[in-house]
Design a protein that fits this description.
The protein is built from 19 helices and six strands. It is mainly α. Strand 3, helix 8 and strand 4 form a beta-alpha-beta unit. The protein starts with 15 loop residues before the first helix and ends with a helix.
């Protein structure tokens, strides 16, 4: 019978099927470094408080360092009988340094230990995600600056609506990813709370110094309630929620790139290095990267629902159900970071077809709103102006003429207020540069937004 930490209570060996069913080592082995760092800090705190001797602590710390090296060199054996990464490390330490290792678990439980490991892991991951988001924001600013002045149709309902600058469109995604970065940064405040010392649920009778452990592990705060410390997985849910929103933004961007790279739109060309071909159609060049990112978004949404459902009915405090929090968390981390990484590689390798983008502002009555604004500036109530322009558009549709192609006489047929000065109002560049309201697409606005973004990014 393999040794279990609860063997004193049990008279029968654990069934092998139970060992396999309850084992989480295939999933939580990635927490080894955080588990070892937490154990080292715990040892040093126990020695500082006189709970164990300094010699015992140093012996355990040295043994833990050796185990870390063994894991990283690939010379560490895993077994379902030891359940999780915590027991693997403790068992290996006992084999290496003997009975002293059994003092490692003084004043702690696997309940607060795993909570610590996940928090340490997730704060590290959050910082990685924030760095990736900064890279993407930097690339978007660079693209916006590179394509300064390029005009295109802005869309609502996937129909041409009003002219905008391509830079303005790109900076819309900059704002989305900026909010994502803010969400992950804010989430770090709730991740970065030290739970160790809460023990199983009620705290411990040993004279531990939780603040000292927190200092060793670079935690600015210590958890306030021992029961909440081991029962809380809000920080995981919050991380996956922020990840879901970020994936939604990536998916929206992907959808546009998929449309824009089609022959029907032909707005962009994605580099061959970031596309694939067809096994049967030689002419095909498929936007597989955006399509996969769009598809992977559903996985992250599913992970969020998985953890929300997992936690919704759990009584206080720790329940073994919570072992199931790690597969969706780790899958979210892997999916999100992979998508952000491939995007920061792909975006600089996209070519925007500026002439094609500009052509979209030349048809489709995209200047109709500005004709209504023109009439309103002449004193006509906007609702009446809207109706007059609507009739003008209907006339244009019937006669194959855009607004700017009609004569003044034709336009006057719908409102006597129209004069020769109307054509300047209908020019694309003027339409864009009149949008001077804060956050509007006017060239001066967009250039200042890009300049401010560069300042924010330290560029």
């Amino acid at each position: 019978m393999s040794e279990k930490p609860w063997d004193g209570r049990f008279q029968e060996s654990t069934d092998k099927a139970v060992e396999v069913f309850t084992s989480s080592i295939a999933v939580d082995s990635r927490l080894y470094r955080h588990d070892i760092e937490g154990s080292m800090a715990h040892c040093r705190m126990l020695a500082k408080q006189g709970i164990i001797t300094n010699d015992e602590a140093e012996k355990m710390v040295a043994g833990l360092a050796k185990i870390k090296g063994d894991i990283e060199s690939g010379h560490f054996a895993y077994s379902d009988s030891l359940e999780d990464i915590h027991m693997h490390i403790e068992s290996a330490l006992t084999q290496d340094i003997g009975e002293t290792a059994k003092k490692l678990h003084t004043a702690r439980s696997r309940n607060d230990q795993v909570a610590l490991d996940i928090r340490m892991y997730l704060r590290e991951v959050s910082r990685d995600v924030i760095a990736l988001l900064k890279d993407i924001r930097t690339i978007l600013v660079t693209l916006a600056e590179k394509h300064d002045g390029v005009v295109m149709a802005g869309y609502t309902h996937l129909q041409r609506a009003q002219p905008v600058l391509l830079s303005h469109h790109l900076m819309a995604y900059y704002e989305m990813f900026k909010r994502d970065e803010e969400r992950f940064t804010d989430g770090l405040k709730r991740i970065n709370v030290m739970p160790l010392g809460s023990a199983a649920l009620a705290g411990t009778t040993y004279p531990i110094d939780r603040a000292y452990t927190a200092e060793l592990l670079d935690f600015p705060k210590v958890s306030a309630n021992s029961m909440d410390s081991v029962a809380d997985r809000d920080f995981i849910i919050e991380f996956i929620s922020a990840s879901s929103i970020c994936m939604m933004h990536l998916s929206r961007f992907s959808e546009e790139l998929i449309l824009w790279s089609s022959s029907e739109f032909a707005f962009v060309v994605i580099s061959d290095a970031f596309t694939t071909g067809s096994s049967i159609m030689p002419q095909k060049k498929n936007p597989d990267i955006p399509e996969l990112v769009r598809g992977k978004t559903g996985r992250v949404y599913g992970n969020l629902m998985s953890v929300l459902t997992l936690m919704k009915s759990l009584p206080m405090t720790y329940n073994r159900d919570m072992q199931e929090d790690k597969p969706p968390l780790f899958d979210t981390v892997d999916t999100l970071t992979a998508c952000l990484d491939i995007y920061r590689r792909m975006l600089p390798n996209i070519t925007f077809r500026e002439r094609r983008l500009s052509e979209t502002t030349e048809t489709g009555f995209i200047n109709a709103t500005d004709l209504a604004d023109y009439l309103a500036s002449k004193g006509l109530p906007f609702r009446d102006a809207h109706e007059a322009v609507g009739r003008t558009v209907a006339y244009g549709l019937g006669n194959g003429k855009e607004l700017q192609d009609m004569t003044v006489a034709e336009l006057k047929g719908f409102s006597p207020l129209i004069e020769d000065d109307v054509f300047a109002f209908l020019e694309t560049r003027n339409i864009i540069d009149r949008r001077i309201s804060q956050g509007g697409t006017a060239t001066a606005n967009v250039r200042e937004a890009v300049a401010q973004a560069k300042r924010d990014l330290g560029l």
